[in-house]
Write a structure and sequence with these properties.
With 441 residues, this protein is α+β, with helices and mostly antiparallel strands. It folds into three domains: 223 residues, 3-Layer(aba) Sandwich (Rossmann fold); 82 residues, 2-Layer Sandwich (Uridine Diphospho-n-acetylenolpyruvylglucosamine Reductase, domain 3); 87 residues, no CATH class. The protein has a six-stranded mixed β-sheet, sandwiched between helices. Strands 7-10-9-8 form a four-stranded antiparallel β-sheet. Helix 1 packs across helix 2, helix 2 packs across helix 7 and helix 5 packs across helix 9. It is elongated and about 90 Å long.
Amino acid sequence: MTALSSSLLQALRPYLQASAWRVAFSGGLDSTVLLHLLAELRQQQNIPALMAVHVHHGLQPAAEAWPAHCAAVCQALAIPLQVCRVRVVPGASQEAAARTARYAALAGLLAPGDVLLTAQHADDQAETLLFRLLRGAGVRGLAAMPSERALGTGRLVRPLLGCSRAELEIFAREAGLSWIDDPSNQSLLHARNYLRHRLMPPLLARWPQARISLCRTAGQMAETQQLLEELARQDLQGTCPLDCPDWLDLPALDLPALQGLTEARQRNLLRCWLASFGPAADYRHWQGWQALRDAAPEAEPCWRVAGGQLRRAGRTLYFLPEGDWSISPMPGQRPVWADPGRPLRLPGNGLLWLSGPAAGQDSLEIRYRQGGERLQLAGRGRRDLKRLLQEAGIPAFVRGRLPLLYAAGQLVAVANLPGYSRAGWSLVWQPPRFEVKKPFR
């Protein structure tokens, strides 16, 4: 067994019990070497079933011949090949758009327990760190590429991160392998290519150990990020909101507890917490957090971040996701409840249920606040709805979308506030749901 094969086996030992290994096979040098190493390993070790996956982007004419090349290589190795064609949505960076399309396609192919193997190596890791450093990335970005992470319902594993491109090329030439040379890899218009061809060679000429040092730094940054996340989890334990309505299913934090942390720990907690909902906030946007945090109690500040916005109400800080929560229902909407025995779905505003002796009434409709509404309450007379909602502690950003039930033109019930409804009326509202894909706990 060669040193390269031994290194690969060591990296893959934790995944020998996986249901299958799928190999991202572009046909280039790196993935060609990985595929051949795995074919050799299969002869010496009991490993999961192998399958290669070629993602065809169709971004250049030369690429039309690549699936056939990959099929020939896989046929010679007796490894099944799946060709997946994707459409790259144009964007500011074609590289980024192609990468997004590629990983989305690969994620969709993974069954629970599957492992996707990709061929990024130490040179790629060093370039990634340098690229992100030049973009001003924080600790999370400078951790570069993790050796493994979740992808879809499976895992993504990069078993060659400890190997240099030179090692892979030596193996390929000694084994007489053939591979695809992607013409786009020579274009200096792409940032990574510029780093690879113009910056890395002089760096390595002056500091031969630069690649190793950069990879070591990435590992240290990954460890630092892990420690920061552990600290954020500890801090999160003390920020459970105390006055959040139990029916308002939104991510929330206790604002005074958060304000009690140092500024650095506030940002660290928010950065880790918000990563559950979307990309991390850019450093230039943290002034938005300061403005929201320091606003007067009666103010209604909003901090827009990737994936949604942060709003405060009393002691509580809420995250409102993009989608239904970013658009308030039009005050003029008046859905008619034709069958009160069934739940009523409100356009962009969740579901309603009506229970109690009033469920059989006719002429029921749902309205939203427009101002000036008054409600007749037993023993309290006619009360102003605005004051009632303030009294109940309903967050300001919820009041405009809180369903109001009218019967024969009279306001008779306020959703989820039975104490502010006429006797016999019970209106239950399930606001738009927000599913956190990876909750930070």
